[in-house]
Structures are given as C-alpha cells and as structure tokens.
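Board notes, transcribed. Complex of a protein with DQA.
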Amino acid sequence: MTEPVVLLLSGPNLGLLGEREPSIYGTATLADHVARAEGAARRLGYVLEHMQSEHEGDLVTAVHGARGRVAAIVVNAGALSHYGWSLHDALAAFDGKVVELHLSHPSSREPWRRTSVIAPVADGVIAGFGGLGYELAVEAAARLVEEGKA
Ligand code: DQA
C-alpha cells in the first residue's frame, strides 16, 4: 500500500527564508523547513510533497490537483494568507484536512496581518513556533486524518 500524502504549500517570498527579515523569520531556509516537515511526515507513515510559488494561481492549481489524492494540506500562504480569496475558495473545495501554518505570530504583528482568509477553511492554525511549527503542523494534519478514520 502506498503511504498517504501531506502536501505542504509555501506562498510568496518564502523562498527567501534565511535571508528575509531574519529577526522575524529566523535564519533557517525553506529547504531546512521542508526537511523538518519531511522528517515528521516519515515518522508518521506519510509522504510529504512540497511546492512553493510567488503566484496565487499556482497554489490554487496545486490545491485542485490535491483533491481526491492528498490526505491533508499544510499551507503557509505568506501574505496571501491575508487576502488570497481564490486560495480560500480552492481550499474550501478540498476534501481533506487543512492546517494553516505561520513561522511568526501574525495576530501579534501589524493590524493587516490579523485577518486570515485561510482560517475559515482550515481545521486549525499553527503560528509563532518558528521552524518547529513545520513539524507540529504536519503532525497535527496526520493526526487529524487518523482521527477521521476512527
Ligand atoms: C508568514 C506571515 C505572513 O504575514 C507573511 O506575509 C509571510 C510569512 C509567516 O510564516 O509568519 O510571508 O506567513
């Protein structure tokens, strides 16, 4: 039997992690975070797929491709978290579990970051734990999937 899949989606500017505002986002690169997420998925018997894009439409297409195939999506949509309504709509049409992820704690930052358009279509949110959040989010996603089977 093939392992179930967790899809990690990374939105705009996350490819710059490591160089981008390290006082907020830390010095680890996106590759470092993906490796942590992969490790967590493997330990739980899941396979991790990852895609990053600067473009909302690419993320929407990835969510469409996940329908009926992927058990859960972990999404750090970057700034699209705050205004990406087409990503919201794509996730609303996704049939698996959804975990919203942020390295920082957007609710404690500028007012415009306090709104998330992903939150209404997510099962839960992991925010403010830096790189550890990538492990926690994958674990939460996998455990939600397992609980759904019980
Ligand atoms: C972020 C928070 C967003 O507000 C911001 O636009 C990002 C990164 C985070 O991981 O903390 O690009 O999603």
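The first helix runs from residue 22 to 25. Residues 1-72+91-110 form a domain with the Rossmann fold fold (CATH 3.40.50.9100).
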